[in-house]
Amino acid sequence: MIDKKLLSDIAALKPGELDDVQMNQYEKMLVSFVESFPENEHKIKAALEAKDKETLAVQLETLCTALEKIRADDLASQGREFIKVLKNFNYEYEKIEAIVSVFLRSAVMLSIDIQMAKYLDEKTQATYLRKKKENIEARNTVEKTILAVDDAAISLTMLKQSLQGEPYKLTCVNSGESALQYLKKNDPNLFLLDIEMPKMNGYELAEKIRESGHEAPIIFLTGNSAKEYVIKAIKAGASDFIVKPIYKENLTEKINKYLYSQNE
After folding, report:
1. Residues 6 or more apart whose Cβ sits within 8 Å of residue 3
2. Are 217 and 239 contacting, i.e. CB atoms less than 8 angstroms apart?
3. Which of 8, 22, 63, 138, CA to CA, is 20 to 30 A from 89?
4. How far is CA 125 from CA 74, 81, 118, in A?
5. What is the pTM of this model?
6. 130-163: per-residue pLDDT in tens?
């Protein structure tokens, strides 16, 4: 059953007022979208790689239709604008790739958000709400600290650049082992974890973080919206996801969601 509160927080969806019967049908459409999205994404990326504009336009139209069915109309309209760009031969293909990649990134995040609304259990949600309340109360008395873990130096550099000037103390390490050493003497307010890391991946690190008693929200950095990955991350302790490549606006929005009141 999809959590209606979490569903209402997904800005891209505008389902309107639904009774129980309509909500049941709507949930089925959302699940169908989530399950079919990885294949749609794969076909779009394959067409991009092959520089096949005609196939790319067809696959984008398929995704836009799926978005309309779940009432993500603004995102669907954005996709159709991109389809028009494909027919404009004045655009360099590199620009088309960049535009479509941004659109796909938004669709990936939507798929993940829907899965979070469906699979995030009550215990995890209750912990998030409690911790958020504590963080709001302490906003003006304690500097917020964030631990970022990623084996790719370029990703950590992007995080540092994106959060430069923000009111957080960011600590970056490049392995799960280093993170666990840091946690022996520190208790950050939020974690940013890459999933694909050698020796100890993000899932394993998240489990160890929870086992060691740290309850701060965990945000996974990912590019994969497949259901099995999302569910595995939730079971490991995920509170949310940020889709790579990282953009400052999305990054700070997600962080503030967990550290600060959105109404302040």
Report:
1. 117, 118, 120, 125
2. yes
3. 63
4. 28, 37, 12
5. 0.83
6. 455 555 554 444 678 999 999 999 999 999 999 9
